Protein backbone atom coordinates (compact mmCIF):
# COMPACT_ATOMS: atom_id res chain seq x y z
CA UNK A 1 0.00 0.00 0.00
CA UNK A 2 2.74 2.34 1.07
CA UNK A 3 4.72 1.41 -2.03
CA UNK A 4 1.78 2.05 -4.35
CA UNK A 5 1.26 5.42 -2.76
CA UNK A 6 4.92 6.29 -3.26
CA UNK A 7 4.87 5.27 -6.91
CA UNK A 8 1.69 7.20 -7.60
CA UNK A 9 2.91 10.38 -5.99
CA UNK A 10 6.21 10.10 -7.84
CA UNK A 11 4.32 9.72 -11.10
CA UNK A 12 2.14 12.73 -10.32
CA UNK A 13 5.18 14.81 -9.43
CA UNK A 14 6.82 13.79 -12.68
CA UNK A 15 3.67 14.69 -14.59
CA UNK A 16 3.53 18.07 -12.90
CA UNK A 17 7.17 18.85 -13.70
CA UNK A 18 6.82 17.69 -17.32
CA UNK A 19 3.64 19.67 -17.81
CA UNK A 20 5.20 22.83 -16.36
CA UNK A 21 8.37 22.50 -18.45
CA UNK A 22 6.41 22.05 -21.68
CA UNK A 23 3.90 24.77 -20.91
CA UNK A 24 6.69 27.18 -20.08
CA UNK A 25 8.45 26.39 -23.32
CA UNK A 26 5.23 26.79 -25.32
CA UNK A 27 4.63 30.11 -23.63
CA UNK A 28 8.20 31.17 -24.34
CA UNK A 29 7.86 30.34 -28.05
CA UNK A 30 4.51 32.07 -28.26
CA UNK A 31 5.72 35.24 -26.60
CA UNK A 32 8.91 35.27 -28.69
CA UNK A 33 6.74 35.13 -31.79
CA UNK A 34 4.49 37.94 -30.57
CA UNK A 35 7.44 40.10 -29.51
CA UNK A 36 9.12 39.48 -32.86
CA UNK A 37 5.99 40.53 -34.68
CA UNK A 38 5.55 43.68 -32.67
CA UNK A 39 9.14 44.76 -33.12
CA UNK A 40 8.96 44.04 -36.84
CA UNK A 41 5.82 46.12 -37.21
CA UNK A 42 7.38 48.98 -35.27
CA UNK A 43 10.48 48.77 -37.45
CA UNK A 44 8.48 48.74 -40.65
CA UNK A 45 6.50 51.69 -39.43
CA UNK A 46 9.57 53.70 -38.42
CA UNK A 47 11.82 52.92 -41.36
CA UNK A 48 9.39 51.94 -44.09
CA UNK A 49 12.03 49.57 -45.39
CA UNK A 50 11.39 47.92 -48.71
CA UNK A 51 14.20 45.40 -48.50
CA UNK A 52 11.83 42.51 -48.12
CA UNK A 53 9.91 43.47 -51.21
CA UNK A 54 13.06 43.51 -53.36
CA UNK A 55 14.19 40.21 -52.01
CA UNK A 56 10.92 38.73 -52.95
CA UNK A 57 10.92 39.99 -56.54
CA UNK A 58 14.39 38.67 -57.12
CA UNK A 59 13.62 35.25 -55.81
CA UNK A 60 10.62 35.14 -58.11
CA UNK A 61 12.54 35.83 -61.29
CA UNK A 62 15.78 33.86 -60.91
CA UNK A 63 14.47 30.54 -59.85
CA UNK A 64 12.51 29.26 -62.83
CA UNK A 65 13.70 25.76 -63.55
CA UNK A 66 15.24 25.25 -60.13
CA UNK A 67 13.49 22.42 -58.30
CA UNK A 68 12.09 23.65 -54.98
CA UNK A 69 13.46 22.33 -51.71
CA UNK A 70 10.52 21.66 -49.41
CA UNK A 71 11.08 21.78 -45.65
CA UNK A 72 8.57 19.62 -43.78
CA UNK A 73 8.05 20.33 -40.09
CA UNK A 74 7.52 17.79 -37.31
CA UNK A 75 5.25 17.46 -34.29
CA UNK A 76 4.03 20.79 -32.87
CA UNK A 77 5.59 22.34 -35.96
CA UNK A 78 4.27 25.09 -38.16
CA UNK A 79 4.84 26.44 -41.63
CA UNK A 80 5.53 29.84 -43.03
CA UNK A 81 2.97 32.39 -41.93
CA UNK A 82 2.11 30.81 -38.58
CA UNK A 83 3.39 32.28 -35.32
CA UNK A 84 4.06 35.58 -37.07
CA UNK A 85 7.61 35.86 -38.30
CA UNK A 86 8.93 32.90 -36.34
CA UNK A 87 10.54 30.17 -38.44
CA UNK A 88 10.36 26.49 -37.48
CA UNK A 89 13.57 25.87 -39.44
CA UNK A 90 15.18 28.85 -37.71
CA UNK A 91 15.65 30.77 -40.95
CA UNK A 92 17.37 27.94 -42.86
CA UNK A 93 14.90 28.60 -45.67
CA UNK A 94 16.79 31.82 -46.47
CA UNK A 95 19.91 29.87 -47.45
CA UNK A 96 18.59 28.97 -50.88
CA UNK A 97 16.65 30.79 -53.55
CA UNK A 98 13.78 28.38 -53.78
CA UNK A 99 12.61 26.89 -50.52
CA UNK A 100 9.03 26.17 -49.49
CA UNK A 101 7.85 25.75 -45.89
CA UNK A 102 4.31 24.32 -45.85
CA UNK A 103 2.07 24.30 -42.79
CA UNK A 104 0.65 20.79 -42.30
CA UNK A 105 -0.95 21.02 -38.88
CA UNK A 106 0.99 20.48 -35.69
CA UNK A 107 -0.72 17.36 -34.33
CA UNK A 108 -2.41 15.89 -37.40
CA UNK A 109 -1.61 12.32 -38.43
CA UNK A 110 1.23 11.49 -40.80
CA UNK A 111 -1.35 10.36 -43.37
CA UNK A 112 -3.32 13.63 -43.24
CA UNK A 113 -0.10 15.65 -43.48
CA UNK A 114 1.01 13.78 -46.57
CA UNK A 115 -2.35 14.47 -48.26
CA UNK A 116 -2.15 18.16 -47.33
CA UNK A 117 1.43 18.39 -48.62
CA UNK A 118 0.49 17.02 -52.03
CA UNK A 119 -2.23 19.63 -52.63
CA UNK A 120 -0.11 22.43 -51.17
CA UNK A 121 2.43 21.72 -53.92
CA UNK A 122 0.32 20.56 -56.83
CA UNK A 123 -2.74 22.70 -56.16
CA UNK A 124 -6.43 21.96 -55.70
CA UNK A 125 -8.67 21.09 -52.82
CA UNK A 126 -7.25 18.69 -50.24
CA UNK A 127 -8.89 15.28 -50.65
CA UNK A 128 -8.21 13.04 -47.67
CA UNK A 129 -9.75 10.11 -49.49
CA UNK A 130 -13.22 8.67 -48.98
CA UNK A 131 -12.26 5.52 -47.14
CA UNK A 132 -9.83 7.14 -44.73
CA UNK A 133 -12.06 10.08 -43.85
CA UNK A 134 -15.01 7.82 -43.15
CA UNK A 135 -12.94 5.52 -40.99
CA UNK A 136 -11.49 8.44 -39.05
CA UNK A 137 -14.63 10.52 -38.78
CA UNK A 138 -13.52 13.70 -40.49
CA UNK A 139 -14.54 15.61 -43.58
CA UNK A 140 -13.28 14.21 -46.84
CA UNK A 141 -12.26 17.59 -48.22
CA UNK A 142 -10.09 20.24 -46.65
CA UNK A 143 -8.48 23.48 -47.63
CA UNK A 144 -8.41 24.65 -51.26
CA UNK A 145 -4.86 25.47 -52.35
CA UNK A 146 -6.00 26.63 -55.80
CA UNK A 147 -2.92 26.94 -58.03
CA UNK A 148 -0.44 25.30 -55.65
CA UNK A 149 3.16 26.26 -55.00
CA UNK A 150 4.64 24.11 -57.76
CA UNK A 151 1.91 23.21 -60.26
CA UNK A 152 4.43 21.91 -62.81
CA UNK A 153 5.46 19.19 -60.34
CA UNK A 154 5.80 15.83 -62.11
CA UNK A 155 8.37 13.19 -62.96
CA UNK A 156 10.40 15.61 -65.08
CA UNK A 157 10.09 18.36 -62.47
CA UNK A 158 10.80 16.46 -59.28
CA UNK A 159 11.29 17.99 -55.83
CA UNK A 160 13.81 17.80 -53.00
CA UNK A 161 12.30 17.19 -49.57
CA UNK A 162 13.87 17.83 -46.18
CA UNK A 163 11.93 16.63 -43.15
CA UNK A 164 12.48 17.15 -39.46
CA UNK A 165 11.27 14.47 -37.03
CA UNK A 166 7.78 13.31 -38.03
CA UNK A 167 8.17 15.38 -41.21
CA UNK A 168 10.62 12.83 -42.58
CA UNK A 169 8.00 10.09 -42.29
CA UNK A 170 5.42 12.39 -43.92
CA UNK A 171 7.67 12.60 -46.99
CA UNK A 172 7.99 8.82 -47.17
CA UNK A 173 4.23 8.37 -46.92
CA UNK A 174 3.71 10.99 -49.62
CA UNK A 175 6.21 9.27 -51.92
CA UNK A 176 4.41 5.97 -51.45
CA UNK A 177 1.08 7.64 -52.23
CA UNK A 178 2.60 9.08 -55.41
CA UNK A 179 3.84 5.61 -56.36
CA UNK A 180 0.43 4.09 -55.59
CA UNK A 181 -1.35 6.79 -57.63
CA UNK A 182 -3.45 7.56 -54.58
CA UNK A 183 -4.66 11.01 -55.64
CA UNK A 184 -7.93 10.96 -57.54
CA UNK A 185 -7.67 12.91 -60.78
CA UNK A 186 -3.86 12.72 -60.85
CA UNK A 187 -3.24 9.43 -62.62
CA UNK A 188 0.29 10.17 -63.71
CA UNK A 189 1.95 10.39 -60.30
CA UNK A 190 4.83 8.06 -59.45
CA UNK A 191 7.69 7.74 -56.95
CA UNK A 192 10.06 9.64 -59.23
CA UNK A 193 8.29 12.90 -58.46
CA UNK A 194 10.59 12.88 -55.44
CA UNK A 195 14.23 13.51 -56.33
CA UNK A 196 15.73 13.38 -52.84
CA UNK A 197 14.72 12.93 -49.22
CA UNK A 198 16.81 14.34 -46.38
CA UNK A 199 15.84 13.51 -42.84
CA UNK A 200 16.88 15.53 -39.81
CA UNK A 201 16.22 13.51 -36.66
CA UNK A 202 13.61 11.60 -38.64
CA UNK A 203 10.97 9.43 -36.96
CA UNK A 204 11.37 6.23 -38.96
CA UNK A 205 11.12 3.46 -36.43
CA UNK A 206 9.02 5.10 -33.72
CA UNK A 207 10.13 6.40 -30.34
CA UNK A 208 9.94 5.17 -26.76
CA UNK A 209 9.22 8.73 -25.69
CA UNK A 210 5.60 8.29 -26.79
CA UNK A 211 5.20 5.80 -23.91
CA UNK A 212 6.78 8.18 -21.43
CA UNK A 213 4.38 10.91 -22.51
CA UNK A 214 1.37 8.63 -22.09
CA UNK A 215 0.81 6.26 -25.00
CA UNK A 216 -0.05 2.73 -23.89
CA UNK A 217 2.79 0.24 -24.34
CA UNK A 218 0.26 -2.54 -25.02
CA UNK A 219 -0.97 -1.31 -28.39
CA UNK A 220 0.68 2.04 -29.12
CA UNK A 221 -2.69 3.58 -30.00
CA UNK A 222 -4.56 4.31 -26.76
CA UNK A 223 -3.55 6.71 -24.01
CA UNK A 224 -2.99 6.19 -20.30
CA UNK A 225 -5.69 7.94 -18.24
CA UNK A 226 -3.27 10.16 -16.34
CA UNK A 227 -0.50 11.53 -18.53
CA UNK A 228 0.96 14.53 -20.24
CA UNK A 229 -0.81 13.55 -23.45
CA UNK A 230 -4.20 13.59 -21.69
CA UNK A 231 -3.58 17.17 -20.58
CA UNK A 232 -2.51 17.97 -24.11
CA UNK A 233 -5.63 16.29 -25.53
CA UNK A 234 -7.97 18.34 -23.34
CA UNK A 235 -6.10 21.54 -24.18
CA UNK A 236 -6.29 20.87 -27.92
CA UNK A 237 -10.01 20.02 -27.83
CA UNK A 238 -10.76 23.23 -25.90
CA UNK A 239 -8.59 25.29 -28.24
CA UNK A 240 -10.36 23.97 -31.33
CA UNK A 241 -13.81 24.14 -29.77
CA UNK A 242 -13.40 27.76 -28.64
CA UNK A 243 -12.28 28.54 -32.20
CA UNK A 244 -10.90 32.01 -31.54
CA UNK A 245 -10.13 33.04 -35.07
CA UNK A 246 -7.08 35.27 -34.59
CA UNK A 247 -5.52 32.72 -32.29
CA UNK A 248 -6.12 29.91 -34.76
CA UNK A 249 -4.61 31.91 -37.59
CA UNK A 250 -1.59 32.41 -35.38
CA UNK A 251 -1.20 28.76 -34.44
CA UNK A 252 -3.22 25.74 -35.47
CA UNK A 253 -3.17 22.08 -34.51
CA UNK A 254 -4.55 21.36 -37.98
CA UNK A 255 -7.79 19.66 -36.96
CA UNK A 256 -10.18 21.86 -38.94
CA UNK A 257 -11.43 18.85 -40.92
CA UNK A 258 -12.76 17.37 -37.66
CA UNK A 259 -15.31 20.20 -37.21
CA UNK A 260 -14.65 20.64 -33.50
CA UNK A 261 -15.61 24.32 -33.34
CA UNK A 262 -18.58 25.27 -31.10
CA UNK A 263 -20.14 26.87 -34.15
CA UNK A 264 -20.45 23.45 -35.76
CA UNK A 265 -20.92 21.01 -32.90
CA UNK A 266 -22.28 23.00 -29.97
CA UNK A 267 -21.86 21.93 -26.35
CA UNK A 268 -22.79 18.35 -27.17
CA UNK A 269 -19.87 18.10 -29.56
CA UNK A 270 -17.49 19.30 -26.89
CA UNK A 271 -18.71 16.66 -24.47
CA UNK A 272 -18.48 14.00 -27.19
CA UNK A 273 -14.88 14.96 -27.90
CA UNK A 274 -13.90 15.13 -24.25
CA UNK A 275 -15.32 11.74 -23.31
CA UNK A 276 -13.67 10.26 -26.38
CA UNK A 277 -16.55 9.47 -28.73
CA UNK A 278 -15.49 11.68 -31.62
CA UNK A 279 -12.52 13.66 -32.84
CA UNK A 280 -8.95 12.78 -33.75
CA UNK A 281 -8.10 11.34 -30.33
CA UNK A 282 -11.05 8.97 -30.47
CA UNK A 283 -10.20 7.53 -33.88
CA UNK A 284 -6.43 7.64 -33.44
CA UNK A 285 -6.03 9.89 -36.47
CA UNK A 286 -3.39 12.14 -34.95
CA UNK A 287 0.36 12.09 -34.86
CA UNK A 288 1.24 10.32 -31.60
CA UNK A 289 -0.09 6.85 -32.55
CA UNK A 290 2.04 7.11 -35.71
CA UNK A 291 5.14 7.69 -33.61
CA UNK A 292 4.95 4.67 -31.34
CA UNK A 293 7.05 1.67 -32.32
CA UNK A 294 3.89 -0.28 -33.14
CA UNK A 295 2.43 2.60 -35.17
CA UNK A 296 5.64 3.13 -37.13
CA UNK A 297 5.91 -0.56 -37.86
CA UNK A 298 2.44 -0.64 -39.29
CA UNK A 299 3.06 2.51 -41.37
CA UNK A 300 6.42 1.17 -42.56
CA UNK A 301 4.99 -2.12 -43.69
CA UNK A 302 3.58 -0.27 -46.71
CA UNK A 303 6.48 2.09 -47.39
CA UNK A 304 9.27 1.39 -49.85
CA UNK A 305 12.70 2.90 -50.44
CA UNK A 306 12.71 3.64 -54.16
CA UNK A 307 15.64 2.98 -56.52
CA UNK A 308 15.77 6.39 -58.25
CA UNK A 309 15.47 8.63 -55.20
CA UNK A 310 18.38 9.82 -53.09
CA UNK A 311 18.08 9.39 -49.33
CA UNK A 312 20.11 11.00 -46.59
CA UNK A 313 19.56 11.15 -42.87
CA UNK A 314 21.03 12.81 -39.82
CA UNK A 315 20.42 10.87 -36.63
CA UNK A 316 20.93 12.90 -33.47
CA UNK A 317 21.97 11.82 -30.00
CA UNK A 318 22.64 13.41 -26.67
CA UNK A 319 23.62 10.36 -24.67
CA UNK A 320 26.75 8.32 -24.19
CA UNK A 321 27.45 4.87 -22.90
CA UNK A 322 29.68 4.43 -19.88
CA UNK A 323 30.32 1.03 -18.37
CA UNK A 324 27.20 -0.48 -19.84
CA UNK A 325 25.00 2.44 -18.78
CA UNK A 326 23.48 5.05 -21.03
CA UNK A 327 23.44 8.57 -19.61
CA UNK A 328 22.94 12.12 -20.92
CA UNK A 329 26.16 13.37 -22.53
CA UNK A 330 26.11 16.70 -20.76
CA UNK A 331 23.92 19.18 -19.00
CA UNK A 332 24.42 22.54 -20.66
CA UNK A 333 24.26 21.27 -24.23
CA UNK A 334 20.81 19.79 -23.81
CA UNK A 335 17.74 21.98 -24.06
CA UNK A 336 16.04 22.32 -20.64
CA UNK A 337 12.76 21.11 -22.09
CA UNK A 338 14.42 17.87 -23.21
CA UNK A 339 16.84 17.13 -20.41
CA UNK A 340 14.47 15.12 -18.26
CA UNK A 341 13.34 13.11 -21.29
CA UNK A 342 16.90 12.41 -22.45
CA UNK A 343 17.49 10.91 -19.04
CA UNK A 344 14.21 9.01 -18.90
CA UNK A 345 14.63 7.60 -22.40
CA UNK A 346 18.18 6.50 -21.63
CA UNK A 347 16.78 4.43 -18.73
CA UNK A 348 13.69 3.18 -20.55
CA UNK A 349 12.64 -0.43 -20.15
CA UNK A 350 9.69 -1.95 -21.91
CA UNK A 351 7.33 -3.32 -19.22
CA UNK A 352 7.93 -7.01 -18.55
CA UNK A 353 4.26 -7.94 -18.59
CA UNK A 354 3.65 -6.49 -22.04
CA UNK A 355 4.70 -8.25 -25.23
CA UNK A 356 7.55 -6.32 -26.88
CA UNK A 357 6.73 -4.19 -29.95
CA UNK A 358 8.60 -6.50 -32.28
CA UNK A 359 10.44 -9.80 -32.20
CA UNK A 360 13.99 -9.30 -31.07
CA UNK A 361 13.36 -5.97 -29.34
CA UNK A 362 16.12 -5.08 -26.84
CA UNK A 363 15.93 -2.16 -24.41
CA UNK A 364 19.67 -1.39 -24.74
CA UNK A 365 19.35 -0.65 -28.45
CA UNK A 366 16.71 1.95 -27.78
CA UNK A 367 18.45 3.86 -25.01
CA UNK A 368 20.62 6.22 -27.06
CA UNK A 369 18.42 9.23 -27.80
CA UNK A 370 18.10 12.97 -28.41
CA UNK A 371 15.31 13.72 -25.94
CA UNK A 372 12.48 12.96 -28.34
CA UNK A 373 13.61 10.15 -30.61
CA UNK A 374 15.79 7.08 -30.17
CA UNK A 375 18.94 7.31 -32.26
CA UNK A 376 18.39 3.80 -33.63
CA UNK A 377 15.10 4.93 -35.06
CA UNK A 378 16.47 7.92 -36.96
CA UNK A 379 19.17 6.43 -39.17
CA UNK A 380 17.00 4.62 -41.69
CA UNK A 381 13.74 2.69 -41.81
CA UNK A 382 14.20 -0.63 -40.07
CA UNK A 383 10.74 -1.88 -39.20
CA UNK A 384 9.35 -4.34 -40.09
CA UNK A 385 12.21 -4.86 -42.56
CA UNK A 386 15.51 -3.06 -42.76
CA UNK A 387 16.11 -0.84 -45.82
CA UNK A 388 19.53 -0.46 -47.53
CA UNK A 389 21.78 1.95 -45.66
CA UNK A 390 25.34 3.21 -45.32
CA UNK A 391 26.95 4.93 -42.38
CA UNK A 392 28.85 8.15 -43.23
CA UNK A 393 31.53 9.73 -41.06
CA UNK A 394 32.16 12.94 -42.96
CA UNK A 395 30.39 14.73 -45.78
CA UNK A 396 33.32 14.21 -48.13
CA UNK A 397 32.41 10.54 -48.30
CA UNK A 398 29.18 11.32 -50.07
CA UNK A 399 30.17 13.35 -53.11
CA UNK A 400 28.98 10.55 -55.33
CA UNK A 401 25.74 9.29 -53.93
CA UNK A 402 23.79 6.31 -55.16
CA UNK A 403 20.02 6.50 -55.20
CA UNK A 404 17.98 3.95 -53.30
CA UNK A 405 20.29 3.82 -50.26
CA UNK A 406 19.88 5.63 -46.96
CA UNK A 407 23.17 7.41 -46.20
CA UNK A 408 23.24 8.37 -42.55
CA UNK A 409 25.34 10.39 -40.21
CA UNK A 410 25.20 10.56 -36.43
CA UNK A 411 25.30 14.07 -35.01
CA UNK A 412 25.85 15.09 -31.41
CA UNK A 413 22.76 17.24 -30.90
CA UNK A 414 19.37 17.17 -29.22
CA UNK A 415 16.06 16.93 -31.01
CA UNK A 416 15.53 20.65 -31.42
CA UNK A 417 19.10 21.79 -32.01
CA UNK A 418 18.46 22.54 -35.67
CA UNK A 419 15.08 24.20 -35.39
CA UNK A 420 13.44 27.32 -33.97
CA UNK A 421 16.51 28.89 -32.37
CA UNK A 422 19.47 29.35 -34.66
CA UNK A 423 21.85 30.67 -32.00
CA UNK A 424 21.70 27.49 -29.95
CA UNK A 425 23.29 25.36 -32.67
CA UNK A 426 25.95 27.96 -33.42
CA UNK A 427 28.27 27.02 -36.25
CA UNK A 428 26.72 23.53 -36.50
CA UNK A 429 23.55 25.12 -37.81
CA UNK A 430 25.26 26.53 -40.90
CA UNK A 431 27.34 23.42 -41.42
CA UNK A 432 24.35 21.14 -41.50
CA UNK A 433 21.97 23.20 -43.60
CA UNK A 434 24.71 24.32 -46.02
CA UNK A 435 25.62 20.71 -46.64
CA UNK A 436 21.96 19.74 -47.11
CA UNK A 437 21.25 22.51 -49.60
CA UNK A 438 24.55 22.00 -51.41
CA UNK A 439 23.89 18.32 -51.78
CA UNK A 440 20.46 19.05 -53.26
CA UNK A 441 21.81 21.62 -55.69
CA UNK A 442 25.15 20.10 -56.69
CA UNK A 443 25.35 16.38 -56.07
CA UNK A 444 21.93 14.98 -56.61
CA UNK A 445 20.62 14.53 -60.12
CA UNK A 446 18.61 11.97 -62.00
CA UNK A 447 21.10 9.62 -63.58
CA UNK A 448 18.59 8.08 -65.93
CA UNK A 449 17.95 10.20 -69.02
CA UNK A 450 14.32 11.24 -69.00
CA UNK A 451 13.92 11.51 -72.78
CA UNK A 452 14.24 7.98 -74.09
CA UNK A 453 10.68 6.77 -74.15
CA UNK A 454 11.49 3.38 -75.68
CA UNK A 455 14.25 2.54 -73.24
CA UNK A 456 12.62 3.73 -70.11
CA UNK A 457 13.78 1.49 -67.25
CA UNK A 458 10.40 1.85 -65.66
CA UNK A 459 7.28 0.56 -67.21
CA UNK A 460 5.27 3.70 -66.57
CA UNK A 461 1.77 2.27 -66.67
CA UNK A 462 2.53 -1.25 -65.59
CA UNK A 463 -0.16 -2.71 -63.34
CA UNK A 464 0.79 -3.19 -59.73
C1 LIG B 1 -17.90 19.56 -41.36
O1 LIG B 1 -18.56 20.71 -41.80
C2 LIG B 1 -18.66 20.84 -43.20
C3 LIG B 1 -19.34 22.14 -43.56
O2 LIG B 1 -19.55 22.95 -42.50
C4 LIG B 1 -19.43 19.66 -43.76
O3 LIG B 1 -19.48 19.77 -45.17
C5 LIG B 1 -18.74 18.38 -43.38
O4 LIG B 1 -19.48 17.27 -43.83
C6 LIG B 1 -18.57 18.30 -41.88
N1 LIG B 1 -17.78 17.13 -41.60
C7 LIG B 1 -18.05 16.31 -40.61
C8 LIG B 1 -17.14 15.14 -40.44
O5 LIG B 1 -18.97 16.47 -39.85
C1 LIG C 1 11.65 -5.81 -35.95
C2 LIG C 1 12.59 -4.83 -36.58
O1 LIG C 1 12.83 -4.93 -37.74
N1 LIG C 1 13.05 -3.84 -35.86
C3 LIG C 1 14.00 -2.96 -36.35
C4 LIG C 1 14.15 -1.66 -35.56
O2 LIG C 1 15.45 -1.51 -35.16
C5 LIG C 1 16.12 -2.68 -34.74
C6 LIG C 1 17.43 -2.37 -34.19
O3 LIG C 1 18.43 -2.57 -35.15
C7 LIG C 1 16.35 -3.59 -35.86
O4 LIG C 1 16.94 -4.80 -35.41
C8 LIG C 1 15.10 -3.96 -36.51
O5 LIG C 1 15.32 -4.20 -37.86
From TrEMBL:
It is found in: Secreted. It holds the Pfam family Lip_C. GO terms for cellular component: extracellular region. InterPro entries: AB_hydrolase_fold, Lip-like_C. GO terms for molecular function: hydrolase activity. The keyword Transmembrane helix applies. The keyword Secreted applies. Residues 68-182 form the Lipase-like C-terminal domain. The chain crosses the membrane at residues 12-30. PANTHER family: ALPHA/BETA-HYDROLASES SUPERFAMILY PROTEIN, ALPHA_BETA-HYDROLASES SUPERFAMILY PROTEIN. This is (rape) hypothetical protein. It comes from Brassica napus (Rape). The lineage of its organism: Eukaryota, Viridiplantae, Streptophyta, Embryophyta, Tracheophyta.
Amino acid sequence: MMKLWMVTSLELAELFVSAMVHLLYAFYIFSTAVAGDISKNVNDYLFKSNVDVNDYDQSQSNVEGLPPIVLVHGIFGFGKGRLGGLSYFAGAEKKDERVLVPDLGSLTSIYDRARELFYYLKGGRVDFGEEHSEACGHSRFGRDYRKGQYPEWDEDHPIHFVGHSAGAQVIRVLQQMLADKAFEGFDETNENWVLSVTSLSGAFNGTTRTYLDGMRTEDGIGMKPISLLQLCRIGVIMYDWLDISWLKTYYSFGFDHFNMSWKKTGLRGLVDCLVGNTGPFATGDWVLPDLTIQGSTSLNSNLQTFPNTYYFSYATKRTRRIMGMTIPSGVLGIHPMLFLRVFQMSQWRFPQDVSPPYKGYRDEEWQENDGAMNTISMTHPRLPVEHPSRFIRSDSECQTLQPGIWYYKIVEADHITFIVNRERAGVQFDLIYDSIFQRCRKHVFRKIPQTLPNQSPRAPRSPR
